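Sequence only, no structure available. Ideas?
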Amino acid sequence: MQSISGAHRRLTILAGVMFILAACSTPGGTAPGTATAPGSAPASAGAGSGVDLSGASFTVGSKEFTEQLLLGQITKLVLEDAGATVTDETGLVGSKVVRAALTSAKIDMYWEYTGTGWITHQGNTKPVAGSDAQFKAVKDADAANNIVWIDPAKFNNTYAIALASEKATELKLTKISELATYATANPAAATLCAAAEFLGRDDGLPGLEKAYGMKFATPSELELGLVYTSIDKGDPCVFGEVFATDGRIAGLGLTVLADDKEFFPSYLPSLNVRKEVFDKNPKLAELFAPVAAALDTATMTSLNAEVDVDGKEPADVAKAFLTSKGLIGG
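Reply:
I predicted one. Tokens follow.
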């Protein structure tokens, strides 16, 4: 998730500071707060499912990292192709911010991850075993908050801990329990870089340290996009927070340590929609079913890499993907 150079990321974030705390606009997308009216519904409205949403209007949000920007642009394009008018509010900074935008009706939908919904938004401390069971649990719980979880895509963008492959070979580390042993014996050398959200979440560093019985002396807070390049160089950190579907893991030749105690929850992505909006447009589930089906782990990782490794814009990558799959008209 999230490449683009640190400088580019800063420009992206600055572009959208006008919406909830410090939002950033999606590169190549519509500026936040502006509507993109497709005019009359195209002849291919709802190309992937035949759903026609002519006359409907929606506000689409997302978080700020690459995968979320891609999912936001995918959502926007699919809705427009089905004839809807879309206001783009993608690129909101942080899970709590975008969730607040949804519950306060400032946006109508965004893609959330099951683990985040269950731990961060529902306030649970332990995940539910099994990805399908976790989805059902968070979907049922969020019904009380008038939020509909549409059936998820099947890629699991869970947290992970990684380091440069040559360093992993040098230290003979393959799993997090081995890192715990190393960190206990070498506290000054076991340096960790992570984004602010990971450092404070129960399903992030605090829970990880408790589960594995270890403690990082002085974790370094970095912009998430800088963590990957930092651990690749080993400066300022040897270890770092990464996401399982991030294209830079392979692009930089990083090694992901196995979560051998299965601490990290399942993070399947689901389009979250306000119930009021869904009740008026129940065919949203039908419209996005083929989209979710097309987003497997290999596909999402490849899309992320097109942005983070190849330097393409999320909106362009999203459009090419949807067109190639016949999910929108050409």
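The first strand starts at residue 34 and ends at 36.
Hope that gets you unstuck.
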